[in-house]
Design brief:
This protein is an alpha+beta fold. Among the domains are: 93 residues, no CATH class; 99 residues, Chitinase A, domain 3. A four-stranded antiparallel beta sheet has the order 2-1-4-3.
Length: 299
């Protein structure tokens, strides 16, 4: 008898009947709790497959029969509570729900536009219309020697002149590790982007660096740390790249812009269905006017 029961339980048809019985029992229980007018809750085969697929994607395995039954029961509970909450109007005036629904509406408007692929002409036109978005910033390769003004309050000018003379004598072969004062920065920067230079040394240093002649020691160049003697090896000017260099970036930005345009168009079409009136915040306006018109007693 036990072996017969095991064979029956192993049959897919029998498993389906058991699941159906559980669903019916769950529905009966729900109906008794919320009343006979609650409406039908039908858990379709497609929904069951979706629950199982979501479980598998999260756990990296298929659910057991008991786990699948638990998923179905949890879905029924969620559906019942959701319907009752909606019937009670609990979704109204809830900031979080309003924002979530807004996001869903915006996603709906963006779905169609996201499916379109830009043509070569459209990407080229977008690049031409937004050159600064794709501009390659200038880059600098340089060496520097740091002199700390706080360590040399009385001899800074003399030390700058002496060190600069020694560095110019050796040129590009100068041994900078033994020169100047210690600083928690590298003494050599290779192909550093302009933004990195600005963040590291400050705007004044960056602007001075753009004016230096490559191949010679120069200074002093001031930064937020103090003064530097700088040997500019190479400066690569910024430029707007060709489409072939930034194709994927242009495609991404074009798609983003298309989605934004579609969302705005969708919103403007919906807005036409409504008559909008914004009441003047009289209390705030009165306070603002009183402040504007009040005499200045500070003089």
């Amino acid at each position: 008898m036990k072996s017969l029961i095991r064979r029956l339980l192993a049959e897919p048809l029998c498993q389906f009947v058991i699941l159906g019985a559980i669903l019916f029992a769950g529905y009966s229980l729900v109906s008794n709790q919320v009343g006979g007018n609650a409406g039908a809750i039908i858990v379709t085969q497609g929904k069951i497959e979706n629950l199982a697929a979501t479980f598998a994607a999260t756990r990296q395995r298929s659910p057991t029969q008991e786990e699948l039954i638990g998923l179905i029961q949890d879905y029924i509970r969620e559906e019942v509570l959701y319907r009752e909450a909606m019937a009670l109007g609990l979704d109204r005036d809830d900031t979080i729900i309003r924002r979530r629904l807004r996001q869903k509406m915006e996603f709906l408007s963006a779905d169609t536009s996201a499916q379109a692929e830009p043509t070569e002409e459209e990407m080229q036109a977008y690049l031409a219309a937004h050159p600064e978005t794709f501009r390659v910033e200038p880059r600098f390769t340089f060496r520097h020697v740091y002199l700390d003004p706080q360590r040399r309050p009385a001899t800074l000018s003399r030390d700058i002149e002496r060190t600069l003379t020694e560095l110019r004598k050796d040129g590009s072969k100068a041994k900078i590790a033994t020169q100047g004062d210690s600083l928690l920065l590298e003494q050599e920067f290779d192909n550093a982007p302009a933004l990195e230079v600005q963040k590291t040394f400050g705007q004044e240093f960056f602007e001075h660096l753009t004016k230096l002649t490559p191949g010679a020691w120069d200074g002093p160049v001031r930064s937020g740390y103090g003064v530097h003697l700088v040997f500019l090896i190479e400066r690569t000017d910024g430029y707007v790249p060709a489409l072939a260099e930034v194709r994927e970036q242009v495609r991404r930005e074009w798609t983003h812009a298309r989605r934004a345009d579609a969302s705005e168009t969708f919103y403007q079409q919906l807005l036409k269905r409504y008559s909008v009136m914004v009441e003047e915040p009289q209390r705030l306006a009165a306070v603002a006017n009183s402040k504007i018109q009040s005499p200045d007693t500070s003089k």
